[in-house]
Specification:
It is built from twelve helices and seven strands. By secondary structure, it is of the alpha/beta class.
Length: 281
Amino acid sequence: MSSSGPNAAAFFDLDKTLIARSSTFAFSRPLYAGGLINRRAVLRGAYAHFLYLLGRADHDQMERMRGYLSSLVIGWDVQQVRDIIGETLLQIIEPVVHREAVALIAEHHAAGRDVVVVSTSGTELVEPIAAMLEADVVIATRMTARDGRYTGDIDFYAYSENKATAIRQLAAERGYDLAESYAYSDSATDVPMLEAVGHPHAVNPDRALRREALERSWPVLEFSHPAPLRRRLADRLDHVPHAPATTLVPAAAAAAAAAAVAATAVLTWLVLRRRPIPTPA
């Protein structure tokens, strides 16, 4: 991988690209333990997650689950959810980060590129995970709360074409040369994001994206080795000589950022996945 200087970036989707599972569904058990969802919700979420991992969840199934989860989360107390997710973030996410993704992040940083996590999940969930991975910037769904409770309103929905639009806006702000930049995703819904850069890659692609990648001669990568992140980070720092990047969540505030994970962790993949796409501000 040749260096293209500081004016390029690498854009990574989160679920099934950087990590081996859906970040949203990962938190169903602690939310159940905290009394926010019942056993039936956990079982329905587990089944939907199984279909998602297999790439077999169709539009109607996703719509039904989106409506169901929407009814669950509206009105949840923000602080309670932050506390629950913040306490379990490392336990749940740390073991499922792909080893190959950590290596790629290291290579891009060594080549002088910024690393950007681009996810349909909410910023409150994505930012702490990005900080764990030493990413530089986050593009994610932004949601609102009123009187300490989540309303379900969306300020910006980071999905499909909106991801590409946000990438172009960030590139204009930071001077990235998108022709020299890289992007990685598992989903056909991220084709606009992959088209926005000069070096698109399909990672563990669903069937539609695999077909698209083959037709366009995009590289297809298979990430299959999730392992404890702390061990891999130690190995990486031993073998890759580069200064740690400045993350969106500064190191001194990483613990506070982890506690800032909010109810959007449950809303994101299913609650938002099929909703009409608002244009970014």
